[in-house]
Design goal:
heterodimer; A: 115 residues; seven-stranded mixed beta sheet; four-stranded antiparallel beta sheet; 11 strands; 0% helix; B: 0% helix; 53% strand
Chain lengths: 115, 109
Amino acid sequence: EVQLVESGGALVKPGGSLRLSCAASGLTLTDAWMNWVRQAPGKGLEWLGRIQSETDGGTTDYAASVKGRFTISRDDSQNTVYLQMNSLKTEDTGIYFCWGGIDYWGQGTLVAVSS
Amino acid sequence: QTVVTQEPSFSVSPGGTVTLTCGLSSGSVSTGHYASWHQQTPGQAPRTLIRGTRTRSNGVPDRFSGSILGNQAALTITGAQADDESDYYCALFFSGIWVFGGGTKLTVL
C-alpha cells in the first residue's frame, strides 16, 4: 500500500520560510513524478510544482504564483520530497498536499502565514 | 494564461447518471492533456478517480468513467450514490505543468 505523509506545516510570519516534507512508503520516488498542491481555505486545488522522476531527468517546474519563491527537491535515500517555501505571503495560507504518480495523495499539512 | 473550466455545481438523483465536464477557456481538450479527475469530500484529502483521460485508479468502481466528449474531458458517474456527493476536480497537463479546474460541487438528492 502506498502512503504519502506530509509534515512541517506551521504558523509563520509573512516574509518567513518553511520546509515541508513528504515521506513515501510503498512508492519509490526515484521512479515517480511528485507534485505539490495546495488548497486555500474554502477554495479549490492549486498545483504548485513538480519534480520529475530521476529516470526522466529529475527536473522541476513551478506555477507562476510560486516560481522563484518555492523549490522542490528530493532525497532518494530518505524516499522523501521537500517543498522549500521562502518569502511567504498571507495568501500562501492553506493545506499543502503531496501528490505522487498521479494516483496518490497525502493527507496534507497546514501552513498558516500571519503576523 | 490557461484556464481550465468546470461547472461550479451539479445535482443528480440517487441512481441517476451525471456527466461533469472539463474544458479550456481557449482551445480543445485532447488525450494529450492526460486529464485526471479527483474526488474530495470536506476535510479530506483528494482521491484520484481517473488518470490519463480514461484509466480508473486502483479500487475505483467502474461506475466512474472518463472520456473526451467533443472538445472537453468528461467524468461520468453511472448509478450515483449518496456518498458520491463531493467536490470533483479535473487536472490537465500542459508541457510539464498541471492546471486544476475550479471544481464541481456535486449534490446527490
